[in-house]
Amino acid sequence: MLHAGVFGKQALPADTSCPGGPAKLMDDDDGRVKLFFGGRTVVFKHASAIAALTLLLTFSHSVSAQQPVTKQELTEADLSTLVNLAREAYEAGEYEVAIERLLLANRREPDPRLLINVARSYAQADNCALSLVYYAAFVRHPAAQEPLIASAQAALDEGKADCPAYTDELGGRIMFESEPMFARVYIDDTFIGTTPTESAGLAPGTYQVRMELDDHQDFTQELEVVAQQDATIGAIMETPSAEVSESDSLPDATEAPADEAQAPVNYFAYGLVGAGALALGNGLVFDLVVIPGIDEERRQLSPDQTDEYAELTSRRQSRANIAIGSYVAGAVLITGGVAWLVYDYMSAGAGSDNSQQDDIQRRLGSIQVAPALGQGVAGVVLGGRF
């Protein structure tokens, strides 16, 4: 298993050296060129030195061209690759690049010794404050190696005198993660980087963190920085919900609502109203035409025509019962039909669904109207389920 060493005083293990490392040329006294590359010495005559060097540099370029270059590729690289790439950047003087790769390596497999490498990289980049912040982060790390704590503490104590920008009140490491990755991180509108990333050495206080990712909702959170304390902020970047425009949500005033246009006609309710009207008309006919005719016939009888008078009286009573029954039936039918129409209207206005309308229609369909005639009784009978 690969163990990360320390840049500077202690080099990384030999098995992590990059095969594309720097080459050195030395002109020997016997007219030969000695080429030192990757720990091996190759001797060439002057005639073939240039061709060999060109081939070697081409090979070195092809190796480096195959290494991950984007942050997405770096996040997918293994620890060995990240450490080798960090060493390359450090030896090339690209300290910010080396720091990014070291932090990604530490994210891949946390190792406190990588924090010392970050500290020395910041020192080489002339950023003494962040260098001391990472020395302090190593010293307080619970898994820090004992042999290195003393040297890191010594570097921290020695650097404080020459670095007025550093104080023990500065905050520790603030690490940022997101799902999906590569969200843009801002602290008080200052761009920090893309996740996964981290910031360190902030002054104690309250900050506003914002993460942005294309086609996702922004994530915001308040950050409280405390001296010498590390923290991690993770965000689940959510996709925005579908928004309905106001023009889509408001119905067109010139168009009838869909529910109203598609509402079924309640023929049974109208039938009840019609039947009630016929019943009332029937009652009026008996009351205004038939019964007065019988009364006129009774007046024309002589007092001795008792049998005829009794028959007319019985007929009049029967016709009166029919008229009363017609009035009652008409009133019931009309009231019932109107009540159902009102109920349908109110149900449609309240947004009742089609299943409710179908249920009402089925119930109306089960109603039966039949005339009922008997000895001294006339009318109609309503039958069904209510």
UniProtKB/TrEMBL annotation:
Domain PEGA: 174-232
Record carries keyword Membrane: yes
The keyword Transmembrane helix is assigned to this record: yes
Gene3D superfamilies registered for this protein in UniProt: Tetratricopeptide repeat domain
InterPro entries assigned to the protein according to its UniProt record, in alphabetical order: PEGA, TPR-like_helical_dom_sf
Transmembrane stretches, start-end: 267-291, 322-343
Pfam families found in the cross-reference section: PEGA
Keyword annotations of the record: Membrane, Transmembrane, Transmembrane helix
Name of the molecule in the record: PEGA domain-containing protein
